[in-house]
Design a protein that fits this description.
By secondary structure, the chain is an alpha+beta fold. It contains six helices and eleven strands. The protein has a single domain (2-144, 185-221), classed as 4-Layer Sandwich (CNF1/YfiH-like putative cysteine hydrolases). It starts with a strand and ends with a strand. Bound molecules: zinc ion (ZN).
Length: 222
């Protein structure tokens, strides 16, 4: 069994500006036909034939997936099934992909400010351990907005502990994610360490507002 993952950028698709080029999200105003073609291109790039998406709502609900279904409204997907890729869409939010080789369980989480604040990463790790017998959970963190670019209001900044605030009013979402990973004894972390707002290779909602979404996908292969 092998754990595989794929994180797309904006290149190689057919969408026109401002969604250029590989937008994989239907809900952002792009042409549905273009998105359909892009998803096929995405699957080909990743080496898969399909992926389970979610109707993301910036919450902390995690849904167990046993077969491909209509995208459920949630921000976390978890499975023990092989060849059932789980996909998260984002443009600044982090895709956090979790896996345990031995317990053979994987999860894909949409962790933006809201999801991270609601502890979706800790919640997924508890679930993997308590329900699926995971003991060694590793994590992959997609590109997302870093504290260099995530200025928030002073009022919002004041709702977070100082350790998550940089230079007065810049929120460090990834530090919130790291804290949950480390408090739950994560085995290893692979961090793409790319700020989506700094890098034009990725979609950024903060930078562009009307824009596409890239995908973070994880799956198990026999
Ligand atoms: Zn940045």
């Amino acid at each position: 069994m092998r754990i595989k993952h794929f994180i797309s950028d904006r290149y190689g698709g057919v969408s026109k500006p401002p969604y250029n080029w590989l937008n994989i999200a239907m809900h952002v105003g792009d042409s549905a036909l273009d998105v359909k073609r892009n998803r096929q291109i995405l699957y080909k790039k990743a080496g898969i034939t399909n992926a389970q998406f979610a109707n993301q709502v910036h919450g902390d609900m995690i849904v167990e997936i046993n077969d491909f279904i209509v995208p459920p409204s949630c921000d976390g997907l978890i499975t023990t099934q092989f060849s059932l890729p789980l996909a998260i869409m984002s443009a600044d939010c982090f895709g956090v992909l979790l896996y345990d080789n031995n317990a053979k369980v994987i999860a894909a989480l949409h962790a933006g400010r809201m999801g991270a604040t609601k502890q979706i990463v800790a919640k997924a790790m508890h679930l993997m351990r308590n329900r699926y017998g995971a003991t060694n959970i590793s994590a992959i963190i997609s590109p997302g907005i870093h504290s260099c670019c995530y200025e928030v209001s002073l009022e919002l900044a004041s709702q977070y502990p100082n350790r998550f605030i940089k230079r007065g009013r810049y929120l460090d979402i990834k530090a919130i994610i790291y804290e949950q990973l480390e408090q739950n004894r994560v085995e290893s972390i692979r961090d793409y360490n790319i700020c989506t707002c700094c890098s034009s290779d990725y979609y950024s909602y903060r930078r562009d507002k009307k824009t596409g979404r890239f995908a973070s996908i994880i799956w198990m292969e026999e």
